[in-house]
Specification:
By secondary structure, the chain is α/β, with parallel strands linked by helices. The chain is 41% helix and 18% strand. It has a seven-stranded mixed β-sheet with strand order 10-11-12-9-8-13-14, with helices on both faces. Strands 5-4-3-6-7-16 form a six-stranded mixed β-sheet, with helices on both faces. A three-stranded antiparallel β-sheet has the order 1-2-18. Helix 5 packs across helix 14 and helix 9 packs across helix 10. Keywords: NAD, Oxidoreductase.
Length: 470
């Protein structure tokens, strides 16, 4: 891996400045690499998951990968323009000029997760390539078929000095994180992110962390319950809840809890009347994660929670040779339950009541770590504004869930334990660029004019007084 990094950096330095035509060509080739092998990638994803909805994979990992690449291709000319900045009076009148030029950083390391193992490679690459960088990608050991396919096809589209994929388990991941990249982006769990940050610190590598957390849904008293529950059910059951932005728990007015639970059950049953043989519904990634979810559900039951399993066809999941898991709606939840302490990352949805006004729900959110997203459903503009102003999260969607991540002109990222930094669209271009300040001095002797040139005297005192004047 170190030899690969050195080869990429040498190629990068030899090519500077990286022309926009080359950047656009890489974006085009990246889109082709995914699009040309869409069917094979969908097959690999389904093999890795045990079953994954083909249509979902086409939406989230194929089309969802090509869209940011096309967006970058369309806008990179504008993003890459130098930005004029002001200079202090009267230097501008005398011919001084200032600007910010965006330069590529060099070689960017990408550590991708297993839940969207194509999209969460290609979406960062849109900004990385637009900015003029090279990239090395460490894929997840939990999706070996997808990783192997990337390694098989990448050479048809890219030289190893432009883009390379490496795979392996935790030891390979640790070694990858310790490489002296020019930037590193990690998408995954908060606990692992701490180790990534420690590893990168030894080389002072700038890091972007895309993590997760417990993203809440706040339902206002005037919300359309049918609409809210349907949209939450869609977001929670997409990829079987294995989404960093999945709604993690709901906060609902006490008098509407029963209606919310019924709405969730109705919506889930309509979308997935069966589950075990339903090609639209995705399985849990592996036995360990399936067991983890089952244990957390048992923990909640043992501590007094009510668990409703949305199984409209009455299927036997206990004896099925499958890791598919139906939606579990959990009420009467308390803070000592694991599902209220950890990010769930599966089709388990706690529903909690709030008794007073919206401030009670806001307080519930604010006593936890800052989440990757906050979702609010309601019609009251003042209430909506209060939720947005009084909660701090990576992003927010109003009257739906998850959708803000698909808006290419919005930055995507977390805050605190849910992440560090952001990318997507121009924000990704800026993240993976170095903003170089460039100042051009006029012909006159500015140092003398500003009183900077010794021997100091009246001109110096006059310049200081002018700057200190209030």
């Amino acid at each position: 891996m170190r030899a690969l990094l050195e080869a990429q950096r040498a190629a990068f330095m030899a090519a500077l400045p990286e022309p926009l035509s080359v950047r656009k060509d890489r974006l085009t080739r990246a889109a082709a690499m995914v699009g040309d092998h869409a069917d094979r990638f969908c097959d690999a994803l389904s093999e890795d998951f045990g079953h994954r909805s083909r249509e979902q994979s086409m939406m989230t990992d194929i089309a969802g990968s090509i869209a940011p690449l096309k967006h970058a291709l369309k806008h990179v000319d504008r993003w890459a323009r130098a930005e004029k900045r002001k200079v202090q009076f009267p230097l501008g009148l005398l011919g001084a000029r200032a600007r910010v030029e965006y330069q590529p950083k060099g070689v960017v390391g990408v550590i991708s997760p297993w839940n969207f193992p194509i999209n969460l490679v290609m979406s960062p690459l849109a900004g990385i390539f637009a900015a003029g960088n090279r990239a090395m990608v460490k894929t997840s050991e939990f999706t070996p078929a997808t990783s192997a396919l990337f390694e098989e096809v990448v050479g048809r589209y890219f030289a190893a000095e432009e883009l390379a994929f490496v795979s392996g388990g935790p030891e390979a991941g640790k070694a990858f994180a310790e490489l002296p990249f020019d930037h590193l982006i990690f998408t995954g769990a908060t606990g692992i992110a701490k180790h990534i940050l420690h590893a990168a610190a030894d080389n002072l590598v700038p890091v972007t962390l895309e993590l997760g957390g417990k993203s809440p849904v706040i339902v206002g008293r005037d919300a359309d319950i049918r609409q809210a529950t349907e949209r939450v059910a869609i977001g929670k059951m997409l990829n079987a809840g294995q989404i960093c932005l999945a709604p993690d728990y709901m906060l609902v007015p006490a008098e509407q809890q029963a209606a919310v639970v019924e709405g969730l059950k109705t919506a889930a049953s309509a979308m997935y009347p069966t589950l075990l043989s339903n090609p639209d519904y995705t399985a849990i990634i592996n036995d360990r994660h399936h067991q983890r979810l089952a244990e957390w559900i048992d923990d909640a039951r043992a501590k007094g929670a009510t668990v409703e399993v949305v199984n409209p066809a009455g299927e036997d999941f206990a004896t099925a040779n499958s890791r598919k898991m139906p939606l579990h709606i959990v009420t009467d939840v308390t803070d000592d339950m694991t599902i209220m302490q950890e990010e769930i990352f599966g089709p388990v949805l706690p529903v909690r009541r709030y008794e007073a006004g919206i401030d009670a729900a806001i307080a519930e959110v604010n006593r936890r770590d800052r989440p990757l997203a906050v979702y609010y459903f309601g019609k009251d503009e003042g209430e909506k504004r209060r939720v947005l102003d009084r909660t701090i999260s990576g992003g927010a969607t109003v009257n739906d869930v998850i959708f803000h991540v698909s808006m290419e002109d919005l930055p995507f990222g977390g805050v605190g334990p849910s992440g560090m930094g952001a990318y997507h669209g121009r924000d990704g271009f800026v993240t993976f660029s170095h903003a170089k300040a460039v100042y051009q001095q006029p012909k006159i002797d500015v140092a003398k004019l500003a009183g900077l040139k010794p021997p100091y005297g009246a001109a110096t005192r006059k310049a200081v007084a002018a700057q200190m004047k209030r």
